[in-house]
Amino acid sequence: AEDGIRDAQESRGLGDVYKRQPLCPREIRKNSVDVISVRGGNTVVVSEPRQKVDLSRYIEEHAFMFDKAFDENTETSDLYRNVCLLYTSDAADDLLCVDLG
Fold this sequence. Notes:
Distance between the termini: 25 Å
Radius of gyration: 17 Å
Mean pLDDT: 79
């Protein structure tokens, strides 16, 4: 798995990594539906509730591929060891980390 990140980094000069955040307490209190899941270590799936013309309900899944994806149970220290150290070990002044959300 780590080799896959390094291969992607070397071939493109960057890597796409996703860290799934758990629902916040406010979302849990409101009984919000969790629609995001991480599958296979590199796929993030958004499960969108939909309704057909005949009013039957179904879930449409949208999959997004990343070099590496971590679920909500991943500790920050594990994320750092598995991603940040790989990128920073060879980078001098050319590293940019962006944290959204």
